[in-house]
């Protein structure tokens, strides 16, 4: 048998080998590393694309919150689906026994402390642009009402989680890991501190955008240093932010890329190649330039604007029970309570499985969802919940106020969900206008709540007012009413363009339920309420 290859075949083979050499980086085979990652790591895409060229490792990121990721890993749902986990911190994962046992080697890639960013004028007014400040100083000023701030939901975003842990540890002044007794001792200080929280969000990015819209009545943000520096660099802030580094310490995100024990040998090889590349000094500088995060490798000089003095690292709780107790206390007692109107489409197209899914989503938020994430996304103590169903017109609302110590306080919500009946057409904008009418006197009488509207519809509005009329209606309302955001859920045949317009008009954002469940979308929205 001849071993000779014809000219045409040889040319094809040469082309294949050339292409393989490029894709595989000087002869190494191309590989894929599937990573369950924090949402903020989306800004690393350009760095990861360059890493692929250098290493032949293609990184695919599937974004998740910290608690969702911990639940996924603990339940074994990450095994076989992902090769690695890359969150801003492994601290909570390490406390969940079922998750910790599934984690393999970890490599820290970058750092970013969680600090306070204040409008420059507010920092000058408080004197925090020129004198050392502790978390105790910040908490005292917050309790006196001298400034207001935004922070992410600690069950949805690690920056809020780190802020909650850091403030608690600093106020405790023990220098040791937090426990439930210590949390109770500083509860009055924490209540005063969180009374000044004016904005909440499920992600650091949305929090920054919301702050930019409300910088006239919110003085600053507790967020990653990198996010605050990037906001200043973007020029999107109405006023530059002064970063305040509390002298009693911070909690730092160290972004460990962590291989799962279930990963096979090809993934292990790809992981090693990738992390070695990401920790090269030139890549560390590229990460710092692209994201404003600090290098994890000693000897890489910090960019101008990033302080070089050492930061004290505050202790983290030593067991999961203490973390869970702190989260529960934050939602049920420390932070300002929520007020939400759920505007719910019960038109004829919602009949059957769709209406059953809606009922199940509401019952899940009422405590039926016993999952790790569901535990912290349920309706919270002191929260006021109104169900406003609609079809051809807005129907009678059902309102309940939640008492965390009295599960029966949720019976009204469960009954309201069970009583939903489908039929008729779809008057989306009439229902939204009615929600704002219900909220207006409530907001005026009790402005110290996080107030929002959730809109769920599975189709286009075909009765009553339209988007233009809603816009005109809102223009006539008081500023506090106009500031209430709407979070539309994209479901069924909902008009995506119109729902996006509603979100943009009111300062909300849309949530996707067309490829998943209403329960998942409703649970995600909780981080923004």
- Largest sheet properties: 7 strands, mixed
Number of domains: 3
The first-level CATH class of the largest domain is given as: Alpha Beta
Measured between the Cα atoms of the first and last residue, the distance is 74 Å
CATH homologous superfamily name of the largest domain?
von Willebrand factor, type A domain
Task: Note down, in words, how this protein is organized.
α2 (45-55) crosses α13 and α16 (353-368) packs antiparallel against α18 (411-418). The chain is of the alpha/beta class and 529 residues long. The relative contact order is 0.11. It contains 23 helices and 18 strands. The chain has 3 domains: 18-110 and 255-295, 3-Layer(aba) Sandwich (D-Maltodextrin-Binding Protein, domain 2); 112-253, 3-Layer(aba) Sandwich (D-Maltodextrin-Binding Protein, domain 2); 337-528, von Willebrand factor, type A domain (Rossmann fold, 3-Layer(aba) Sandwich), CATH 3.40.50.
What are its keywords?
D-Maltodextrin-Binding Protein, domain 2; 23 helices; 529 residues; 44% helix; 6-stranded mixed beta sheet; Rossmann fold; alpha/beta
What is this structure, in a nutshell?
The chain is built from 23 helices and 18 strands.
What is the topological layout?
Elements (H helix, E strand, L loop, with lengths): L6 H17 L7 E8 L6 H11 L1 E8 L1 H9 L9 E3 L4 H5 L1 H4 L2 E6 L1 E10 H7 L8 H9 L5 E4 L5 H15 L7 H6 L1 H8 L2 E5 L2 H10 L6 E5 H10 L6 E4 L7 E2 L2 E5 L4 H14 L2 H11 L2 E2 L24 H15 L3 E8 L7 H16 L3 H6 L6 E7 L7 E4 L9 H8 L9 H18 L4 E8 L9 H9 L3 H4 L3 E5 L5 H11 L4 E2 L5 H8 L4
Parallel strand pairs: 1-2, 1-3, 6-7, 6-8, 13-14, 13-16, 16-17, 17-18
Antiparallel strand pairs: 3-11, 4-11, 5-8, 5-9, 5-10, 5-12, 14-15
